[in-house]
Amino acid sequence: MAAITVQNLYKIFGKNPENALPLIEAGKSKEEILDQTGNTIGINNASFEVKEKEMFVIMGLSGSGKSTVLRCLNRLIEPTKGTIKIGDEDITNVSKDRLLDMRRNKMSMVFQNFGLFPHRTVADNVEYGLEISGIDKENRRAKAYGALQKVGLKGYEQQKPSELSGGMQQRVGLARALANDPEILLMDEAFSALDPLIRADMQDELLELQAEVHKTVVFITHDLDEALKIGDRIAIMKDGYVVQVGTPEEILTNPADDYVKAFVQNVDRTKVITAQAIMRKAPSIQIPKDGPSVAIRKMEKVGVSTTYVVDEQRKLKGVVTIDDAIRLKDQHHKNLESILISDIAVASPQTPINQLLPKAIESKYPIAITDADQNLKGIVDRATILAELNENGNEAVNEKAEPKTLTK
Amino acid sequence: MFDIPVGDFFEFLINWLTENLGGFFDLITVTVKTFLVGIENVLLFPHPILMIILLSALAWYVSGKGVGIFTVIGLFVVEGMDMWEGTMETLALIITAVFIALLVGIPLGIWASKNSTVEKITRPVLDFMQTMPAFVYLIPAVLFFGLGEVPGIIATLIFAMPPAVRLTNLGIRQVPEEIREAALAFGSDSRQMLFKVELPVALPTILAGVNQTIMLALSMVVIAALIGAGGLGQPVVTGLQQLDIGLGFEGGLAIVILAVFLDRVTQSLGERSQ
Ligand SMILES: Nc1ncnc2c1ncn2[C@@H]1O[C@H](COP(=O)(O)OP(=O)(O)OP(=O)(O)O)[C@@H](O)[C@H]1O
Ligand SMILES: [Mg+2]
């Protein structure tokens, strides 16, 4: 089941949202509707699903409706129309008590400017959610200290938030959101107020933390690099619409429209496109079953001069060249191990192609792509990598990793 | 030209109230008087020396060495001028008036912060209360409550209450939206929101209002003495009537000393809460 299901969600700000609904359905633009009715469209017929334990990023320009969508998920903003299911429960229809309950136990939120309580110590901030749910002092203390340890703030429990740096304050925000062990984390531009180096650190830490805690995360940003780094999937919003939902790679390789294209075109594709996407099937033989004759036939058939060798578990052992194989056959030997070249370049399917290039340049043979069990998945040769880099334009190859922001 | 009988109407209203709500006013008089006398007794019970030590220690602890030393010297001067009893009476009167002003003013400020209609109504009323010359309050106060300390307290608290309402309202409205959202997102109900988040975050501003209320109450001491409220206003009024410069000055000096003590201590409380 999806962790969150949003169906045909609308949010219209203003006095008489009913007046605007028919106009929206008639396909009028946001500006026209504002002119005619004085209502602002926050969300326009948004539908998407967030899978359990995935990092779902929502991105888009300023004013595109990201924060509004996020706040509808816990009803800090009341949707005008549509359904939002948390698990299988429609949160737009629950009682007041149930809503409080869901906010206390199922989801929590991290804010752009941290939203910490200035009058409470770090530990008391982290405890807040537990305190108002009526958890006893001792228990919540223990949980708060645990959460603070997770985010690396052990020893700061009795400080006031104002005594900490921005990065540390947001760790407090993160710990506060983790303390009641919710299923869902809602993060609204959580790292946008931090300076770039700290921001990159926090992104890494969030990924590490996620590997440990496995939450469903809805993360909002307008920084594309951040979205690509963090997101398992990304939803792109424009004027209240959800324009496209997909994995970072799908969005880059297959932008749904010009709007998406416009802001993915500057991305350094070499950092995002992975070996997996450009690898092809490897000619391979299996030892000890196959000997030089099979190897030669295979290579002649595919028209290559090297073939990859795997064992019975399909673990990669190395390569053999056609010349060596012919020599071995002439000497009436059967065992390929003697001509096996095991010193070859290997990479994982997730390696971005900008890291494949140096390997490809050094290596005489195509790079073998293997998974965590050393099983051979495919190969990538130099020509493919160069072709991919070329498509990206010379600019992207030279350009270093400056953060790309949509708003600027 | 024509006459608008504002004065006649007001007179009529006050008369009607005195006649019909006399019992109610008597009840208020008794309650306030009991409260006041209780506090006076507490303040006057210890020997002045002991009291000076206690108050100076409080000032030192809350506001630091300077204010502590000032309080020791100031209160010895007061005792030396033979103004000790008047000072404690005035302190009791101010405590009573401020206590009631806050009891009404802070909840009113909270209500105004939650409800824009209430805010719109209270704003001009508060302006009126504060700009009306303080002497004017003396007349209905005397009509309702007779002469003595109680009408003095009532006039004082009406004059002194506006900042408490205003700054409570302001403080709560100034709580950053994100902090409010955080409180909601973690599942606060409206009571938890108010007591665990809004009031604590607004506390420095509210305490600034309390400080202003105390100062305004002090400024009423002499005026209240005109209707028999006693305390430190009495020597000033007597000094004025008998053209006794020395007596008037002694009373005035004691008021200043008390004012500085109260101002510094309440200000420091506000700063500490930040
Ligand atoms: N309380 C409100 N009243 C009226 N209009 C609002 C309100 N909140 C948001 N809007 C409007 O709804 C639209 C979407 O706003 P939203 O805050 O969701 O955008 P966003 O994508 O989060 O932008 P940003 O990147 O600037 O945070 C905007 O046009 C905004 O002006
Ligand atoms: Mg936003």
What is this structure's SSE topology?
The complex is a heterodimer of chains A (408) and B (274).
Chain A: E1 4-13, H1 17-25, H2 30-37, E2 40-50, E3 55-60, H3 66-73, E4 81-86, E5 89-90, H4 96-105, E6 107-110, H5 122-132, H6 137-150, H7 166-179, E7 184-188, H8 196-213, E8 216-221, H9 224-230, E9 233-238, E10 241-246, H10 248-253, H11 258-264, H12 275-278, E11 284-286, H13 292-302, E12 306-310, E13 316-321, H14 322-330, E14 346-347, H15 353-362, E15 367-370, E16 376-380, H16 382-391, H17 393-398
Parallel strand pairs in A: 3-8, 3-9, 6-7, 7-8, 11-12, 14-15
Antiparallel strand pairs in A: 1-2, 1-4, 4-5, 9-10, 12-13, 15-16
Chain B: H1 6-20, H2 22-44, H3 48-63, H4 65-80, H5 84-114, H6 116-131, H7 134-145, H8 149-160, H9 162-173, H10 177-185, H11 190-219, H12 221-225, H13 233-241, H14 245-272
Helix pairs in contact in B: 2-5, 3-4, 3-14, 4-14, 5-6, 5-8, 5-9, 5-11, 6-9, 7-8, 8-11, 9-11, 11-14, 13-14
The structure holds adenosine-5'-triphosphate and magnesium ion.
How would you describe this structure to a colleague?
The complex is a heterodimer of chains A (408) and B (274). Chain A has 408 residues and is an alpha/beta fold. Chain A has 17 helices and 16 strands. In chain A, strands 6-7-8-3-9-10 form a 6-stranded mixed β-sheet, sandwiched between helices. The longest helix of chain A is centred in the middle third of the chain and has 18 residues, at 196-213. Mean pLDDT of chain A is 88; it is low at 394-408. Chain B is 85% helix and 0% strand. Chain B has helices spanning 6-20, 22-44, 48-63, 65-80, 84-114, 116-131, 134-145, 149-160, 162-173, 177-185, 190-219, 221-225, 233-241, 245-272. In chain B, α5 (84-114) packs antiparallel against α6 (116-131). Chain B is globular, with a radius of gyration of 21 Å. Adenosine-5'-triphosphate (ATP) binds at residues 13, 40, 42, 60, 62-68, 222 of chain A. Adenosine-5'-triphosphate is lined by residues 13, 40, 42, 60, 62-68, 222 of chain A.
